[in-house]
Amino acid sequence: MERANSDNHALQKVTMALERTFSIIKPDATERNITGLVNAKIEEAGLRIIGQKRIHMTTEQASKFYDIHRDRPFYSDLVDFMTTGPVIVQILEGENAVSKYREVMGRTDPSEAAPGTIRAEFSKSIDANTVHGSDSLETAAIEIPQFFTDDEIVG
Ligand code: ATP
Ligand code: MG
Questions:
Q1: pLDDT tens readout for residues 107-149
Q2: pTM of the predicted model, to two decimals?
Q3: Could you give the angle at the alpha carbon of 72 between the alpha carbons of 65 and 64, nearest 5°?
Q4: How far apart are alpha carbons 93 and 20 in whole angstroms?
Q5: Distance from the CA of 126 to the center of ligand 1, in angstroms?
C-alpha cells in the first residue's frame, strides 16, 4: 500500500511538472539569421516546440505584451525594438518548461549570462537580447493566447 502511494505521488509530480511556456525569438536574431541556432539550444535542453509562427509584431501587440514594463524608462525603446523586424513566437512544452527555458536563455543582461546560454552566446546588449521567455506559469498562460489560438497549438 505504501509502495502504491509513493508511486502515485511520483506519477502526480511528473504530470504536474509538464508545463508550457511562451517564447519569442527577437528581431536581432531574425536579422542575423540565427533562429535555427537559438532553437537548437532550446531543443537540446529537451523542450519541444508545439506551436510556432513568424510574425511582424504591430506596435499595438508589442505595447500590450510589455505593458507590465510601461513605467520603466526603456519601455518605448523596447516596444520600438520588437517591431523593427520579424520575430518568431513559439510555445515550448516540457518538464518544468518555464524555469528550464529561463535557464537556457540566461540572464537578461548578456554580460551576466552564464556560458553556453542563448544570451551569452548570441546577444549583443541588454535590449537586443535575442529571446523572451515567460517568467512564471501564470504569465505564460496570459502570454500564449495573445499570439496563439487553440487550433494553432499542434503538438
Ligand atoms: P524577457 O521578458 O524579454 O524575457 P527578462 O524577463 O529577462 O526578458 P525583463 O526584466 O522582463 O527581462 O525585461 C524585458 C525586456 O526589457 C528585456 O528582455 C530587455 O530586452 C529589456 N530590458 C530590461 N531591462 C532593461 C534595461 N535596463 N535597459 C534596456 N532594456 C532593458
Ligand atoms: Mg520578462
A1: 999 999 999 999 999 999 999 999 999 999 999 999 999 999 9
A2: 0.91
A3: 15
A4: 4
A5: 7
Rounded to whole angstroms, the Cα distance separating 88 from 35 reads 8
Element (H, E) at 93: strand 87-95
Average pLDDT over residues 92-97: 98
- Of 108, 125, 131, the one to substitute when testing ligand 1's pocket (max ligand atoms within 8 A of C-beta) is 108
d(CA 54, CA 96): 25
Closest atom of ligand 1 relative to the 128 alpha carbon: 20
Q: How many whole angstroms from 139 Cα to the centroid of ligand 2?
A: 9
Dihedral sign computed on CA atoms, order 91, 93, 99, 103: negative
Ligand nearest the Cα of residue 22 is 1
